[in-house]
Amino acid sequence: MIRIVEMKAPHVPQVAALEKLCFSDPWSEESISGELNNRYSFWLVAEDDGVVLGYIGSQISFPEADVMNVAVYPDSRRRGIAAILVEALVRHLRSMDCTSLTLEVRASNAPAIALYEKMGFALVGRRPNYYRHPKEDALIMRKEWEV
After folding, report:
1. Angle CA 97–16–31, to nearest 5
2. Residue 5: CB partners within 8 Å, gap ≥ 6?
3. Is 104 a residue of the active site?
4. pLDDT for 5-14, tens place per residue?
5. Please, which pLDDT band fits residue 136 given cuts at 50, 70 and 90?
6. Catalytic one among 64, 104, 131, 144?
7. Domain boundaries, the chain
8. Strands 64-72 and 41-48, bridge-based pairing
9. What is the model's pTM?
10. CATH superfamily, region 2-144
């Protein structure tokens, strides 16, 4: 059974491994571990029997928050895990009186863009050449709500 829990130190090696698998410019294990001590960070993991299937990391700058990264293991995709993680993050942010969540997504990542649009995110901008490997624009998407 999949559980969504706040990221703790034992999750960090699995999150770092997932970063390496999913991103061309992954965060290091040390960087991810550092987020545990950052009072402005909030990270969640989706786990099944102690195995991390996905995660979402955020930075909070009241009353706004930004998604740092979100990833799901390829074998676990298309099961709604990313949506569950985003929904859980939004619930947490609402409880803290945040009013919006912003993220960047590769312009070519049609499945992620479709998911974010379905979840109420709107396109608000573009960052040219934001991604380095390969070089690509990022779309800036934002979801807002009332508290």
Report:
1. 65
2. 44, 45, 47
3. yes
4. 999 999 999 9
5. very high
6. 104
7. 2-144
8. unpaired
9. 0.95
10. Gcn5-related N-acetyltransferase (GNAT) (3.40.630.30)
